[in-house]
Design goal:
mainly beta; ThiS/MoaD-like; Thiamine biosynthesis protein ThiS; Ubiquitin-like (UB roll); five-stranded mixed β-sheet; Thi_S
């Protein structure tokens, strides 16, 4: 079977779970959000969620944020 992963065609052996795909990508321990066919799949379902031929999968990395450490330069702190 094949899926579309982040806009690129990717062949996969069937059956494959979302968790197996993330592990293959080296992302199983990373903080990611996953959408399959425009629906967010909760992390709690990754192990049971089986991918199907032609599924569109988007994987987005969670990036921490915070203060840049730069001041506004107007004297307010």
């Amino acid at each position: 079977m094949k899926i579309i992963l982040n806009g690129q065609e990717k062949p996969l052996a069937a059956p494959t779970t979302l968790a197996a795909l993330l592990q293959e990508m080296g992302l199983s321990e990373r903080r990611v959000a996953v959408e399959v066919n425009r629906e967010i799949v909760p992390r709690s379902r990754h192990g049971e969620f089986e991918l199907k031929d032609n599924d569109r999968v988007e994987v987005v990395f969670a990036i921490g944020g915070g203060s840049s450490g730069m001041s506004r330069g107007d004297g307010d702190r």
